From TrEMBL:
Family stated for the protein in its record: Belongs to the methyltransferase superfamily. RlmG family.
PANTHER family according to UniProt: RIBOSOMAL RNA LARGE SUBUNIT METHYLTRANSFERASE G, RIBOSOMAL RNA SMALL SUBUNIT METHYLTRANSFERASE C
Keywords for this protein: Cytoplasm, Methyltransferase, rRNA processing, S-adenosyl-L-methionine, Transferase
Gene assigned in the entry: rlmG
Protein name, entry field: Ribosomal RNA large subunit methyltransferase G
Enzyme class, broadest EC rank: transferase
Ranges where the Methyltransferase small domain occurs: 201-371
One Pfam entry name: RLMG_N
InterPro entries according to UniProt: DNA_methylase_N6_adenine_CS, RLMG, RlmG_N, RsmC/RlmG, SAM-dependent_MTases_sf, Small_mtfrase_dom
Recorded GO CC terms: cytoplasm
Functional note: Specifically methylates the guanine in position 1835 (m2G1835) of 23S rRNA.
A GO MF term: 23S rRNA (guanine(1835)-N(2))-methyltransferase activity
């Protein structure tokens, strides 16, 4: 495994979730560029450094022995990566203060290092939240690999922070260096809301929620075909997003005991608010987590899932496969996993490798709804 070497530290880092013979690294040239730039600019041990969207802790773990570090992001897997990589390199978890993206930051910060996220709405929300959190003379520097760095990211820095200067590209990475200046206070446009006709709901969506402006077409194909039961079914909405699958199932099944889990803190925040609006004080376990990794075996009767096909910029079915395995482990014998997926992803064949029986419940030209029985 390559060592992440910068002027601040030499670290042995792993991605989360870990894969055997994983060809991908837990860091890239943009992380290296950010830290080299910070070192060149100079930073004192008492400086407060805020790191945003540090994928697996490469930035925060590098800085932890040198300065006072706060890390904030929307990925629970990213948080688990930070904790794992701190321990892996002999550092204490307490050396980095972690703040989920769903919670407010408490500054002031002298330096802000940002990995530009895939969802620019998340970046916009994070920049708005920096209002009043920057110390005099603070610097704000964002970075990304050139192929993943949209022009709009620089526009957001200019709008909310101050004049922005892009750097030259180094190893296919680029910095966006913003100079903070006085700006009038801005009200965040997030969360957004949209309405559903069936079930009739208004759904709240915080900045990093998938398909924030309207129901995604996969879920739209799934909703009319959700299983029905009036029994006290123990059910989970795995990768719940704003919670719509779990909420719709719970509305139709008053005795269902529901678990909603997602690795995005903002998704969980949205799901909690939407559950409360739709179902009041009805109990539910709504949590950020690594899928169903923490769910006891044989503890669920039903799992509903609209699986993701990417992790940050990396496209593939690894996360979906992992969710299928987790669902199988958590289900009782005879329990069922119901999923929706693009036809071309071939989930039917994959599920047959894990489950006793797999059948197609419904189909559209683009999507299939599948039921897999343990």
């Amino acid at each position: 495994m390559p060592i992440f070497a910068t002027p601040f530290a030499h670290l042995d880092l792993v991605r989360q979730p870990e894969q055997r013979d994983d060809p991908l690294q837990a860091f890239d040239a943009a992380d290296e560029y950010l830290l080299n730039h910070l070192h060149e600019q100079g930073v004192t041990p008492d400086a407060r450094v805020l790191v945003l969207n540090d994928s697996f802790g490469a930035l925060a773990a590098s800085l932890a022995p040198q300065v006072r570090v706060t890390s904030s992001g929307d990925s629970h897997l990213g948080y688990l990566g930070l904790v794992r990589n701190l321990a892996r390199n002999g550092l204490e978890a307490g050396q980095v203060a972690f703040v989920p993206a769903s919670e407010p930051l408490v500054g002031p910060f002298d330096r802000v290092l940002i990995r530009v996220p895939k969802t620019l709405a998340l970046l916009e929300e994070q920049l708005i939240r920096l209002q009043g959190q920057l110390a005099p003379g603070a610097s704000v520097v964002a970075a990304g690999m050139v192929k993943h760095l949209p022009h709009a990211a620089g526009d957001l820095l200019t709008r909310y922070i101050g004049p922005m200067q892009p750097s030259l590209a180094v190893k296919k990475a680029r910095l966006l260096i913003a100079t903070p200046d006085a700006r009038p206070a801005v009200t965040s446009p997030y969360p957004t809301r949209y309405q559903l006709d069936s079930p009739r709901l208004t759904l709240v969506n915080h900045a990093n929620v998938f398909c924030r402006e309207g129901l995604d077409i996969g879920t739209r194909a799934f909703l009319p075909h959700l299983p029905r039961s009036l029994a006290a079914v123990r059910a989970a909405d795995l990768g719940c997003g704003n919670g719509i699958l779990g909420i719709a199932y719970a509305l139709a099944n008053p005795q269902a005991e529901m678990t909603l889990v997602d690795e995005s803190y903002m998704a969980v925040q949205s799901a909690r608010e939407n559950w409360r609006a739709a179902l009041g004080d009805r109990p539910a376990d709504i949590r950020a987590g690594d899928g169903l990794a923490e769910q006891p075996e044989d503890s669920l009767d039903l799992v509903l899932c609209n699986p993701p096909f990417h992790q940050q910029q990396v496209v593939g079915d690894f996360l979906a496969w992992r969710m299928f395995v987790q669902a199988r482990n958590a289900l009782v014998t005879g329990g069922e996993l119901w999923i929706v997926g693009n036809r071309h992803l071939g989930y039917h064949a994959k599920l047959k490798r894990l489950f006793r029986g797999v059948e197609q419940v419904a189909a559209t030209p683009k999507f299939v709804v599948l039921k897999a029985s343990k």
